[in-house]
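Aim 2 progress update. The chain analyzed this quarter is reproduced below.
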Amino acid sequence: MQYNPFRIGNSSRPGQLLRILQALLLALLLSSCSRIQLAYNNLDWLLPHYLSSYMPLSDNQDSLLEAGVENFLHWHCSTQVTSYAQLLREVDRRFRSDDLIRTELVNFNDHVQQAWTGILQQGSPALGVILLTADETQIRELFEGFEERNSEWLEEFEATSDEELRDDYRERMSKELQRWFGELDERQEQLLVVWSRRFQPLGLQGLEVRRRWQSRLQEIMNARNDPEAFQREFAELLTNPGTLRTPVYQQRLDHNRDVTIDMLYTIVLQLSDAQKHHLKRQVKAVAGDFDDLACSGVPVVS
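Predicted structure tokens:
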């Protein structure tokens, strides 16, 4: 996956469990307004369904997860979504200005990463409770599922050429940018070609870090006799995976962040009036939907 400054969370987060929380945030920040509403209204069904694809849940675990999701949504709609709308409007304002500087994109990205960390911190207790109540069969199936997906990823990776990977990065980034800016011109598309050539795929380094994360999770799972310590260590694993990264992996992440910000900054400076108008409309729609989702503690999930 490419590094994407519009996303909260990125391929630096190893471990399939993280996708449970990513599913919410990607829906919120990257989907159309109707799908944002859909994510909120159906999260109590979506998350148990997703988690059960890795580890079948008991009725009690379903109830625990539903309660955890409801508490998470109360926190999220009452404390977070308004700031998302504000950030989007500020991005729109600055992207359509004539004096944007590169440092502002770095700052916007930092805000997004901070929001993602907050999501993980708030969501980890609900996932931790499920893991605390898992029996040996469930745990075995969870880690067998991890390894099965690791093997599937490796098989696909080995069958994909470097050129195909870079073409995929470019196509996905082009689609993402067109969501916000509208159709890209020839110069902007060429910038994406250059970006894809500079981008350093995480490749086998990513798989190694993912397996380190999964191995650390297994260590934590094997010491669940102290629930408070388990929740603390699980939250640390979710929110601070950097301790498990290899130096090469971290260097590539930093490099990819920098070349992506460089590319985006150059494209923003080249936005046409029509593209700026498209951005304004898109931000107005998504930020407005965040405004509609804001609450003061009233339950969102029925």
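The CA atoms of residues 154 and 160 lie 10 Å apart. The first helix runs from residue 18 to 30. These observations will guide the mutagenesis experiments scheduled for the next reporting period.
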